[in-house]
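During the no-cost extension, the postdoctoral fellow (Dr. R.K.) reprocessed legacy sequence entries with the updated structure-token encoder. One reprocessed record is reproduced below for audit purposes.
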Amino acid sequence: MGKPEWEREYVEYVSGRLPRLHRAAYLLCADTFQADDIVQATLASLYLGWRRAVRADNLDAYVHRILVRRYLDERRRPWARVLLGDRVPETPIEAGPGYEERDSLMTALRALPKGQRAVIVLRYFSDLSVEATAEALGCSAGNVKSQCSRGLTALRVTLGETTTLGGTGWQA
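Re-encoded structure tokens follow.
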């Protein structure tokens, strides 16, 4: 496959997945700008390894694995905890339908340990199967199931038993 052909395939793949990748990154880190950085780093890695990536059994799981690794890399960097300035800038809040529910969900997700948060985001917000989630996180399907169970239990406690999460049709 020539360079123009694989670049076209890469662009088509990324164009179709970009909103979902950004949503997953945002749900992991709860910061729009950091999510942009994570997605950009993910797509750069994917571009560099595209020929290897397209040979993966599950390309979406392969890409989500890169995304989760980039998120964890960002969390490990010491400068990620540095505040440039003496106060946090005020961000206008656009209150609209479901805002309080989204805010509650983001707070509950941030309270989960990183592993549980990654499993919940990939399983329920990125619609990956147990097997694809396990592949993306580099762990066993049993680990995904147990992390998912613990994460859902914690979300149920935090959000209340009958809260509908994020318009996904999934209920805690």
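The first helix runs from residue 3 to 29. The radius of gyration is 17 Å. The remaining legacy entries will be reprocessed before the final report is submitted.
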